[in-house]
Amino acid sequence: EALLQFLPFAFQADLWGGVALRRGTRVLAGVHVDGTLRGPIPWRVAGEACLSTWFGDLCVGFEATFGQSRAVDLPAREVWPLLKAALEERRSWSSPLPSGAARAVVTGASVGDGIPRLDPSAALAVRQKVVPLNRTIERFAHVRPIDAERFEITRVVLGTTEIPLPSPIEDWFAPAQFEALGTEERLSRPGFEKMVSGGTLAGDGITTGDELITPVAYETITFPSPTPAPEPYRPDYNQQIAGTARAANANAPLRPPRSPAPLVTLDEEAFVIASTEDLTPRLDLVAAGSRGAAELALRAYIVANPAAAGTLQVVPRFEAMS
Fold first, then answer.
1. I need a labelling partner for 253 at 20 to 30 A (CA). Which of 71, 78, 154, 261 fits?
2. Distance, CA of 291 to CA of 297 (rounded, Å)
């Protein structure tokens, strides 16, 4: 059984084996070894060796390191060219209608150079999956970013007019692709978390011109059926009354109509920084939000305040004291 890491290359393998001297089905003596091998910079081997005889087992632990340890830097890469290319793709842009808004006009597919037309009452949204926005990026997949460690939208200009910043759009990202997580954190953190991937620009209203009314002229043409349709069977009044009286539910008590089942929605789980002693939340450090944002805020606080190490932790909001 082995665990491989490609950048930088490393692996961990569990090893076991043994030999035994038997007489028939009886074990006279035997040796078996269980261990773990890690490497290659340096090689580390640890485990346990046991000698088994007819009167019991004798086990001895062992651990050894071979070779010199040296730091291995991750390959470097610029992230902005990839993010810029993703933002320039037309499929990254959309024009959703706000909730409850009606389409104002019907437009053609696109203008001359293929740029899509936008409905006046629609919003303008952009999203991408290259890198999360508004957060510190410690790594980028298997490489380290060298051009910037944080990307965010700081200014929006429409023509020559500066307009308010867009409201954020969230999407699912893998935190291990953008944060330097240890082995325990990789196992305990969710595989995907919601992070900011883009934003939505929308106005408060639209300006319309004068109403145009055009009369519609039409002509009605009736096509007679080649064969008259048969008359549907219709029981007379007395037959209907008689059938109703003999029905299974004729004497059943009336029941009020059932009310529709309530709609149940689940909110996204939120995390906070809390004291390890009494779980008092520290909302002054970061507001309740995703686990990734809380983890990054806690790391930054510990770097600035080393004495606080071990006194704070990230927990779900419902676990913190109110």
1. 261
2. 10
